[in-house]
Design a protein that fits this description.
With 437 residues, this protein is α+β, with helices and mostly antiparallel strands. The protein contains 15 helices and 10 strands. A hairpin with a 2-residue loop joins β1 and β2.
Length: 437
């Protein structure tokens, strides 16, 4: 059947509807539909705030809350559908079934629109959700109106032969719908598997991330293959096309592929994992998440750096918690020459232990490092287990503890001083310059 025949069949099927519009019962039913819709809008304004207030009490179930909120945003359509259902049954009890045909169609279209709109609000990707919702409703409307066969014939007649594949508008539309549905389902299942893996205590953090990413990618690939096979596309015919894409990836997306492969290597060798404290090119923070292309590093000032995975392979990375969480810090200080160095060392160790974050199991040490110009120089070394909580703040607390301890025990921290010797000739010249001014 060519395009002209398909269009003629569609017009012939639609001509019966124009005849039905001229009947009085169509006008009666249209008035009933309009009245019920206005009544539903008035009722929804009173019911929706009360229902939303109760829905907000749902705690600990974000998925259920999302569905409930999506239903509440369509309260007027839910009420309108209920009104139509009651009106249809009442009208059928007192009139011929043909006199309630319009109500039946409007009820079916309302149910289809309610389902599609709620589904579009539940999905996270707004553009894909709206597109899928409209396509579902259009298909349901064509089926309800009895135009699905004629529309399918028309879309199938719009085709372009491409070798062994006949690419028609109907085939393309089916492929898009199936791809959206299967990929969305694969992403939902992948996210669920990833969340369950993150809660598993038997696997290391790196293995959890690796298995979760492999599961997501595998499910999406399988979903795409299933969708294409379902619409009759021979996957072997895409070999040349996939080869061209591979060449394009190799030349045009080198960095993207490099970061992806680097991310897989990082997960396999377990060099970094979520929760580790790292330093990279002046960036100090803790790893929040490992992604396919980058690593999310959060610093102490709240900034989040998205560092490409390749940098963790090719550059020097300091992992403060690679083998364990113990980190040693040094604090330099000086005291007056009047103080006893041995007493100073003992007091400094006691001051460090008094700070909460300093490890008491790994006893701090304090060493005399040199005789300075105006002070005895010491270095105090201590250990902490939580470097992600910051290093500067714990050093500051230790310095304050040293200040309090030394002040309590009469140990002074000297000011640096300099002696200036002025010779007689230079002094006379200086006085002359001042007098000239």
């Amino acid at each position: 059947m060519d395009v002209r025949d398909a269009v003629g069949a569609a017009l012939a099927s639609a001509s019966g509807w124009f005849d039905y519009v001229d009947t009085p019962w169509f006008l009666y039913q249209a008035a009933i539909v309009a009245t019920l819709f206005l009544a539903a809008k008035v009722a929804a304004r009173r019911i929706e705030p009360l229902a939303e207030e109760r829905a907000r009490r749902i705690k600990g179930h974000p998925g259920l809350l999302r569905v409930v909120i999506a239903l509440l945003r369509r309260t007027e359509w839910i009420i309108f559908t209920l009104f139509l259902f009651v009106a249809l049954n009442v009208l059928r009890a007192f009139a011929w079934p043909s006199h309630s045909h319009l109500l039946h169609i409007v009820l079916s279209l309302s149910l289809a629109w309610l389902f599609a709109s709620v589904l579009s609000r539940i999905m996270r990707y707004r553009l894909v959700a709206r597109l899928l919702g409209w396509l579902i409703w259009i298909y349901a409307a064509l089926v309800i109106l009895g135009l699905s066969d004629e529309t399918a014939t028309l879309l199938d007649s719009l085709a372009i032969p491409m070798g062994a594949i006949r690419l028609s508008a109907l085939l393309l539309l089916k492929a898009i719908l199936l791809l959206i549905a299967t990929v969305w389902l694969a992403v939902v299942i992948g996210n669920y598997v990833d969340e369950r893996l993150r809660l598993s205590e038997e696997l290391t953090p790196s293995i959890r991330v690796l298995v979760g990413k492999v599961a997501k990618i595998g499910l999406v690939l399988v979903a795409g293959a299933v969708a294409l096979s379902a619409v009759g596309v021979d996957l072997t015919a895409l070999t040349v096309f996939s080869g061209a894409i591979g060449v394009g990836l190799a030349f045009g997306l080198q960095k993207v592929v490099s970061n992806f492969v680097s991310g897989m290597i990082i997960l396999l060798d377990k060099s970094i994992k979520p929760g580790d404290t790292i330093s990279l090119e002046g960036t100090f923070g803790w790893i929040r998440e490992l992604r396919a292309r980058f690593v999310s590093v959060v610093t102490r000032d709240g900034r989040e750096f998205l560092i490409p995975n390749e940098d963790f392979i090719t550059q020097r990375v300091i992992n403060w918690s690679f083998s364990d969480n113990l980190v040693r810090l040094d604090v330099d200080f000086g005291v007056s020459y009047d103080a006893d160095p041995r007493e100073v060392s003992e007091l400094a160790i006691e001051a460090a232990i008094s700070v909460g974050r300093v490890e008491a199991d790994r006893r701090p040490v304090c060493w005399l490092t040199g005789f300075g110009d105006s002070s005895l120089n010491f270095v105090l070394r201590f250990w902490i287990r939580d470097p992600q909580q910051g290093l500067t703040n714990v050093r500051g607390k230790v310095l304050l503890a040293l200040w309090d301890t030394f002040k309590k025990n009469g140990i002074g921290i000297p000011y640096p001083h300099r002696e200036i010797i002025v010779k007689d000739g230079a002094a006379a010249e200086l006085k002359g310059n001042l007098a000239a001014r």
